[in-house]
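I am writing to request your help with a piece of structural work I have in hand. I set the record out below, with my sincere thanks for your time.
___
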Amino acid sequence: MILVVTFYKFVSLPDFAEKQSILLSYCQAQEVKGTILLAKEGINGTIAGLRDRVDSVLSFLRSDPRLADLEHKESYTDTPPFERMKVRLKSEIVTLGLPEVDPNQQVGTYISPQDWNDLISDPEVTVIDTRNDYEVDIGTFQRAQNPQTETFRQFPDYVQKHLDPSKHKKVALFCTGGIRCEKASSFLLAQGFEQVYHLKGGILKYLEEVPTEESLWSGECFVFDERVAVRHNLEEGTYEKCVSCGHPISESDKASPKYELGISCSYCFDSLTEDKRLRMQQKQRQLELAKKKAEEALTPKSNHQRSAQG
């Protein structure tokens, strides 16, 4: 089994650029793969590998006193979720587009997964899913509002148009692992919202710790790796990903006449340019040819074939 670990921490890292090559080399030496983002405001990552190798990377990260209390979440998968290791430098570890919003200065009130149900069941609480529309499509919490954003950068505009500090006295936010809510809650507090709450550890921690029979979550949770989605107990979900647009697709989505393996799905069919369609078709043909050759190489040859070649 392959261990998948996600983590983030908002902390001042003025020397973040200097850490890039050292961290990349260490991860590669441990044969750990995934993506780690570094910025002046902190670190954000998802990595995967053998348990002892991933533990070694986490220990290496925590050897920096500023990351000594770095928290992480774990899940398992049978197949490698990443093809390579990347350590990228960013202006933000989660992009809101407002550098003045600083979770190191202020954030909302953390709510544990065990207390989350009571909070979002309160009719006086406005519950908001801070994720993007394609993520919300496959699963969300009961009573949650969908901002219908395509990127997190659009969240401030949604707040300006649909929320009012004088009317929405209590606001509860949630996201995949908790990182977007750190910035979203910091932004709301700066806009004058007084009681802002967010789910500690995000949806992933909730699905890990809250029993299915007590859950107020419906559907699956989109994740940013080859698993595509997870369910309760962080078991791998049922969705695949459209190669062309990246939207999660279900078995019923595949029944659409607009779905073509490796080329399009109902979410991108109408906007797909002819040039991209041709490129995707060519790529799919190459993949199918490579797969066929690999299968032929693994197929035992008959005695007749061996004698003919010998």
The mean pLDDT is 93.
